[in-house]
Amino acid sequence: MARSNAVPTFRHEAVAVVFKITDGELTVLVWQRARDPYAGAWALPSGPLEKDETLGACVARHLATKADLDEIAHLEQLETRSAPGRDPFQRTIATAYLGLVQSTADPQLPQNAAWHRADRLPEMAFDHASVVASAIERLQRKLSYSNLGFGLAPDEFTIAQLRDIYAAALGREVSATNLQRVLQRRGQLEPTGRTAPSRGGGGRPAALFRFTERRLAITDPFAALRPGDRTV
Amino acid sequence: MARSNAVPTFRHEAVAVVFKITDGELTVLVWQRARDPYAGAWALPSGPLEKDETLGACVARHLATKADLDEIAHLEQLETRSAPGRDPFQRTIATAYLGLVQSTADPQLPQNAAWHRADRLPEMAFDHASVVASAIERLQRKLSYSNLGFGLAPDEFTIAQLRDIYAAALGREVSATNLQRVLQRRGQLEPTGRTAPSRGGGGRPAALFRFTERRLAITDPFAALRPGDRTV
DNA sequence: GCAAAAGTGTTAACTGTACACCCATGT
DNA sequence: ACATGGGTGTACAGTTAACACTTTTGC
């Protein structure tokens, strides 16, 4: 008590790092800013939190209205940035989210929005460059121990297509052979029974696969120190 | 545009889930609330964010002043809760942190604070029960692929003591033999050269070990889909 | 000597990478 | 037939759990 309502309040916004595989590259949805601060620089989609709104709903709303993104395959909270100087005009606390869009989606983007390669970002506003770096790290780690690939891949795909998606997201070569075996052993993939149409030039037609689950599942929970059989 | 400054602001607080191994059990620092809402229930240490303060500094400040906890071995951000109804009196956004205190520390706690067993929490205020659940999950996963044990263990310890700490934190039996081998192979442990004093009743004196690093290091980065030698 | 606790050697299971080989199709 | 890309079999390496065994102490 004493001073009754001396508790300060803060502007709060949600920021989205939305990834999509475009032309075999990992890309991020960014907007070019028209106004100061950072006029001309690129920024992540963001928007202020409304009075009775959840942060998750705030991200989804902004992505659905400002971009045409009502088809987000996956959305999860990343982290909250609170450095006092991160917005030079007015102190704003930002909670970042990681979003994934399937490579087959092709939403209508406004003029000033674009998918930019994640490994060669342009000049970014605020602390958005480091937020993207965090998101890439999270994505790459989570691709290793979960079925998160469903968020980037199409509904149906060949192993070669999936390999290209993983290679783009992980930033390194991936063996199609071993990717298939690992993901199938973990129960992430199942064959649809159909084959992809021939692309000309011969070659055995590729079987089509799909993810067995289209929501996040941890398929490799213990990197080490796993329980084992005896120690129940 | 239009309405110039219609952006709402919010109360923001930092919440801490501080773990400590006490008497061979994983315990959490909690306070018994004196006032409504949730008078009588137990709550995590928390406090409002100040005007020019970082969230991380806010947590550290509250733990250092309200409790005697200036010796936090590790502190990291967990997640931010924004459900409008989580505080029935006044909407408050809360950012949760995970903190670790070494088992040898014994800070002076106020009357209404206590270390409570993490697996048998009392009636908790707000959404704090689920925040603790998140923190336990994070702790257990991170113990598997990083050197986070340094935050819970003493500066020097025998393998048997370390085994008990891991067993308490993971909630299952752990083999001292294999724990030592895994952590030593990963370069997390090093022998001090000394041995622990005898505890009577015979037995070979235990060698003392320490963690080679006392800050977070990911020692087992790739659960799977690891790069390999060829795919550079 | 004997019990007790610590530490080591060894084996087997599992996981993932690398690579050779076979399969199915278009030209 | 043959080239081309898809898919499978197999060997090998690395990691970890399980457990028997040895070592070092107190009594």
Give a summary of the structure in a few sentences.
The structure is a homodimer of 232-residue chains. The first copy, chain A, has four helices and nine strands, in the order ββββαβββαααββ.
Features:
homodimer, 232 residues, alpha+beta, Nucleoside Triphosphate Pyrophosphohydrolase, Arc Repressor Mutant, subunit A, two-stranded antiparallel sheet, 4 helices, 22% helix, globular, DNA-binding
Give an overview in words.
Two copies of one chain form a homodimer. Helices cover 22% and strands 27% of the residues of chain A. With 232 residues, chain A is α+β, with helices and mostly antiparallel strands. Chain A has two domains: 11-144, Nucleoside Triphosphate Pyrophosphohydrolase, CATH 3.90.79.10; 147-211, Orthogonal Bundle (Arc Repressor Mutant, subunit A), CATH 1.10.10.10. In chain A, strands 1, 2, 3, 4, 5, 6 and 7 form a seven-stranded mixed sheet that branches. In chain A, a hairpin with a 2-residue loop joins β1 and β2 (25-32). The N and C termini of chain A lie far apart (50 Å). The model of chain A has no long low-confidence stretch (mean pLDDT 91). The interface between A and B is large, with 46 and 46 residues. β1 of chain A pairs antiparallel with β1 of chain B. Chain A binds a DNA duplex (27 and 27 nucleotides) through α4. Chains A, B: Residues 10-140 form the Nudix hydrolase domain. Chains A, B: It comes from Microlunatus parietis. Chains A, B: InterPro entries: NUDIX_hydrolase-like_dom_sf, NUDIX_hydrolase_dom, WH-like_DNA-bd_sf, WH_DNA-bd_sf, WHD_NrtR. Chains A, B: This is Nudix hydrolase domain-containing protein. Chains A, B: Pfam families: NUDIX, WHD_NrtR.
